[in-house]
Design brief:
Helices cover 21% and strands 45% of the residues. It is built from 5 helices and 9 strands; from the N terminus they run αβββββααββαββα. The strands form 2 sheets. It has a 5-stranded antiparallel beta sheet, with no helix packed on it.
Length: 191
Amino acid sequence: MFFIKLLFIVCIGKCFENVIFAAYNPLLTYTIRFQKVSFQPNFTGNYTIEKHREKEFVNGFLSLDSPQTIDKIVVVFHRCNPEGVDCEYFQSWSMTDLCPKLRDKNQIWSSWYGAFDPQPVCPVKKVNSFIRNGTIDFEQAVRWYPDVVNYQWKVSQKFYAGERYIGTYTFELSVFGYRKRNKKPSKQSKQ
């Protein structure tokens, strides 16, 4: 009987360790690395990817001119192996009621759309915005799907007016975690 209890405790402990501790690690800081941003019909733009400390940011210009109001975005996620090839469909999000969602705080997309200057005017028909230090907050994605750090991602945002396709822009990126370095105390603070 003792052996069965011990085996049960060890198995449950290992399961708990693999599921809970291998998931989100609060000791790590998560950031993304942009590989590429691309634009398709009706979207034009240019961009640079700039690195500051451990983070990367997109700076540039994005333009869209639609004769109709954009009222739907379909975000399609493809996950690829760490080298960025052998991609497979992962999931899609379809979002309507865009204006309130663009203003939502603490969402994965909040930091990206918050970097637009000027902000898109609702209802959205035209976008002529500079992107200043645009990034995406993937720390929440790591909490939802801990394996996000094991893949490269192609994330396409497809814009629609009703059922009419307007255009797409796509990010190619990877997510990784790192430990922040502790600063050594200066000699003055020791005295």
